Amino acid sequence: MFEKRPVIALDFHCKEEVEKFLAQFDSNEQLYIKIGMELFYQEGPSIVTYLKELGHSVFLDLKLHDIPNTVKSAMIGLAKMGVDMVNVHAAGGFEMMKQAIEGLEEGTPEGAKRPILIAVTQLTSTSEEDMHRDQLIQVPIENSVVHYARRAREAGLDGVVCSALEVAMIKRATDKNFICLTPGIRPKGAEVGDQKRVKTPSEARRIGSDYIVVGRPITLAEKPVDAYHEILKDWNYGN
Ligand SMILES: O=C(O)c1cc(=O)[nH]c(=O)n1[C@@H]1O[C@H](COP(=O)(O)O)[C@@H](O)[C@H]1O
């Protein structure tokens, strides 16, 4: 399920910063925007309505991780907001993921499309050593990621969040239509920051990522619109 547009992570504090950022783009350019907890906890559901009314697609990245009943109830509410994609942590377990899907199905208004649901496997800021030390999971990180992907698929989810490094393995272990959304994307030579498992947009494309998520290389660029278009071009192999 290839998405031509890189998903822009708008990790801003408030709506004013979002407005300032979007004002630099041509108003006809429909973007795929990721709202994370930083922005959502400040602005609430109205930030989703605002972006949807402008015609943008919205991935609401709240990474739910709680008991199954709580996650189901939360998902009913998120589905009503009309977002295009939401996520949970696969570490919350099989039953939690199953209930998350059920909540989304229940909350999706009639005639509307159920939001895509994906599960975070191992965060792209987690290295194999971090995982061994912090989570006491003593297997190679790829095994943990593929295991979570299999469980997410069995629970009925649409895909996973992973690093581009693991996409080929996940597709082999699940199926080629199982979505792999990959953050940890950096243009050649860009600052990596806190990301540990990174690839460039064209590398991610070659490996088979369906969506890429890019934040700071665009939002902190001197010319964000140019930075976005360069990443868009690299992701689409120069087309
Ligand atoms: O779920 C996510 O979107 C996510 C998962 C993950 O494993 N790693 C990861 O970086 N993200 C998000 O992707 C974005 C990456 O931003 P940059 O590192 O600035 O490109 C951030 O908003 C993260 O919250």
UniProtKB/TrEMBL annotation:
Homodimer. One of its GO terms (cellular component) is cytosol. Its EC number is 4.1.1.23. InterPro entries: Aldolase_TIM, OMPdecase, OMPdecase_AS, OMPdecase_bac, OMPdeCOase_dom, RibuloseP-bd_barrel. It holds the Pfam family OMPdecase. Substrate binds at residues 11, 34, 61-70, 124, 186, 195, 215-216. One of its GO terms (molecular function) is orotidine-5'-phosphate decarboxylase activity. This is Orotidine 5'-phosphate decarboxylase. It comes from the Bacteria. HAMAP family: OMPdecase_type1_B. PANTHER family: OROTIDINE 5'-PHOSPHATE DECARBOXYLASE. PROSITE patterns: OMPDECASE. Catalyzes the decarboxylation of orotidine 5'-monophosphate (OMP) to uridine 5'-monophosphate (UMP). One of its GO terms (biological process) is 'de novo' pyrimidine nucleobase biosynthetic process. It is an enzyme of class 4 (lyase). Pathway: Pyrimidine metabolism; UMP biosynthesis via de novo pathway; UMP from orotate: step 2/2. The gene is pyrF. The active site is at 61 (for ompdecase activity), 63 (proton donor), 63 (for ompdecase activity), 66 (for ompdecase activity). SUPFAM superfamilies: Ribulose-phoshate binding barrel. It catalyses: orotidine 5'-phosphate + H(+) = UMP + CO2.
